[in-house]
Each structure stands twice: as structure tokens, then as C-alpha cells.
Amino acid sequence: MEKECGRLQRIAQELHREIAVILQSEIRDPRLNIMVTVSGVDVSRDLSHAKVFVTFLNEKEDVQIQMRLLVLSKVSGYIRTLLSKVMTLRVIPRLTFCHDNSLIEGERMSSLISSLVTLDTHRRALAEDKMEEGHLNS
Question: Listed GO cellular component terms (predicted)?
Fold first, then answer.
């Protein structure tokens, strides 16, 4: 069982690497005129399916993201053909492309933390000013 998990991880890493290369060098669709980054690949236990997580550089509009995912799903057969030429698997998994929003979520969390730190600093400064006024009036 342990060996199987290691094998799945190695296959997922190899798929990750090869799909990234294919997307950068082989796919010439004008609708994908933006940098596509493969952030991860999850492979099913039987190697029949692979979920490919992608991000698009500076793309935040949901409509554009969905359109680009649709394009990727339409070229997934071609990507599988190219994968079969470079990988020595009996069956190349069917590819499902999903948007990885962890980068956007990370940016959102970072901005929330920054705004809370700024707010806390401002409140502390106001509290210190009030304490100084109280000592001066005494």
C-alpha cells in the first residue's frame, strides 16, 4: 500500500512536469495567450483520471478563467497524445483541468492581515494619545 502511494506521487509529479512543458511549448491556441501555470496534479488510484490544477497569470475575471478552462478541456486529448509519447504508462489518465484559486485566496488573506495590523497600530496610537492626555490633565 505504501509503495502504491509513492508510485502515485511520482506519476503525479511527472505528469505535472510534462503537462507544464506541453502547455508552455506545444499549445498555441490564441485563447490561451496568457501564461498558464500548473500548480498541482492529483491522480486517481487506478491512474484513469488526473485532476490538473492551473492558474492563469494576472487573471481574476471568472468568465475569462472559465473560458480558458474550457479551452484546456478541449485540447486535453491532444495533451494526452503528447504525454503518451514522453511517458511510459500503459494508460495515460484522462485530464480534468481545474482552476487553483489558492494564489488569489492567499493574496486576500494577506491583505486582510495587513489591514488588521494597520488598524491595530492605529488603535494603539490613539490609546497612547488618550493616556498621555489623561496624565497631562492630572
Answer: cytosol
